[in-house]
Specification:
Rossmann fold, Zinc Finger, Delta Prime, domain 3, 4 domains, five-stranded parallel beta sheet, 18 helices
């Protein structure tokens, strides 16, 4: 079912529009500049990197040579380059070298590609799942066009599955795919076309062996050994399971939290949604009881955005465990809630004159910034002066707990309020 032309490629439309580098590479266009001589395709597994290289070679009628950096070395690369030079000289036929997993090549091995790229002895199409700015040498990267492939959407995978069911090269309508089975296949795929087609082929074979005219959900589960998670990402269970995850973290039940996290992952939940919920939980339910909770959650969200599934499951597990086992405090949550409530009630008032901006001309005549005491000039670094508006000068919003690291904040806030001369509200 590998696409034979760029028009048959599903997804990656940002790379396949009219006049795009890939279109020019296969000779499409209006006589504009030729396509690049070296392309690096960066994206998750199963998003079409090998397919695009194959389509380019077929569309241009070039020799297609495929190497994997897992098994090939400098010797194999040089042999391909020598063969490409002979084919060009003797038959005028250019060569496309598809190098998969280029990030596995050492610096010396990548260096061996440079002469072929510079002299256009081959059209190099290299594929990687790793960030090329870290895994590909600068001279090769600077001579290549970097194209980033995005994970396939559920609609992309659905289109591939339905094409495989009906196409003459596929199952030729020998078996049907009910909606619930299709949805589970989409969850299994996780944006990976190769995984989706592999599972479909195995399940279809099992159904036909059993004399069935359609692939039942049970047949698919038995074939791929992966239970279907009853989870509607657009319905109540989406919110119920997300709520259960956060409440389990809040309740410090790490095992329950991991269970709900696993359900969300298996259901194909957007990992960025999970990461956002964890960041909220870090401030809402942990706060200063563990000041590291929010940085951990933020780092997890950044990592998830960079790597995606399946590896993102490890990062989300890391963050979920850390948050569930952290000491808990909702003091930051209640503090801002109380402050917002006062503001909405109209309890505000003018900023005290000594705190107002005194940098502009005429501010002194208005009495702005007059009498302000600079705390850094004092031995203890704190000045007894009023900061809040008059209506709120003795209001206390933050009531720290005594769990974890927040105990020292409780001591600190008690001391500073006394030094500020505050009266208890």
């Amino acid at each position: 079912m590998r696409p034979r032309t760029l028009d048959e490629v599903v997804g990656q439309q940002h790379l396949l529009g009219p006049g795009s580098p890939l279109r020019r590479l296969v000779g499409e266009g209006n006589g504009g500049p030729a396509g690049p001589s070296s392309v690096i395709l960066w994206g998750p597994p199963g998003t079409g990197k090998t397919t695009l290289a194959y389509v380019v070679s077929k569309a241009t009628n070039k020799r297609f040579v495929e190497l994997s950096a897992i098994t090939a070395g400098v010797k194999e690369v040089r042999a391909v380059i020598d063969g490409a030079r002979r084919a060009t000289g003797a038959f005028g036929k250019e060569t496309v070298l598809f190098l998969d997993e280029i990030h596995r090549f050492s610096k010396a091995q990548q260096d061996s590609l440079l002469p072929a790229v510079e002299n256009r002895w081959v059209t190099l199409i290299a594929a990687t799942t790793e960030n090329p700015y870290f895994s590909v040498i600068s001279p090769l990267l600077s001579r290549s066009l970097l194209l980033t492939l995005e994970p396939l959407t559920d609609d992309d995978i659905r289109s591939l599955l339905r094409r495989a069911l009906s196409d003459e090269r596929g199952l030729k309508e020998a078996v049907a795919l009910p909606e619930d089975t299709e949805e589970h296949l989409l969850r299994i795929a996780g944006g990976d076309a190769r995984r989706a087609l592999t599972a479909l082929e195995a399940a279809a074979g099992a159904a036909l062996d059993q004399g069935e005219s359609e692939i039942g959900l049970r047949t698919l589960e038995q074939t791929v050994d992966r239970a279907a998670v009853k989870y509607d990402r657009d319905g109540d269970q989406h919110y119920d399971v997300a709520s259960a995850l956060i409440k389990s973290i809040r309740g410090s039940d790490v095992d329950a939290a991991l269970h709900y996290l696993a359900r969300m992952i298996e259901a194909g939940e957007d990992p960025r949604f999970i990461a956002r919920r964890l960041m909220i939980s870090a401030s809402e339910d942990i706060g200063l009881a563990d000041p590291n909770a929010l940085p951990i959650a933020v780092a997890a969200a950044q990592a998830v955005a960079m790597i995606g599934f399946p590896e993102a499951a490890l990062t989300l597990s890391h963050a979920t465990i850390a948050l569930a086992l952290a000491p808990k405090s909702n003091a930051a949550t209640t503090a801002i809630g109380a402050a917002l409530e006062d503001v909405r009630k109209g309890l505000a008032g003018p900023v005290p004159p000594h705190l107002r901006d005194g940098h502009y001309k005429g501010a002194a005549k208005l009495g702005h910034a007059q009498g302000y005491v600079y705390p850094h000039d004092l031995p203890e670094g704190i000045a007894e002066q009023q900061y809040a508006p008059d209506a709120l000068k003795d209001r206390e919003y933050y009531t720290p707990g005594r769990h974890g690291a927040e105990a020292r904040y409780a001591d600190a806030v008690e001391w500073t309020r006394k030094r500020l001369g505050r009266k208890r509200s």
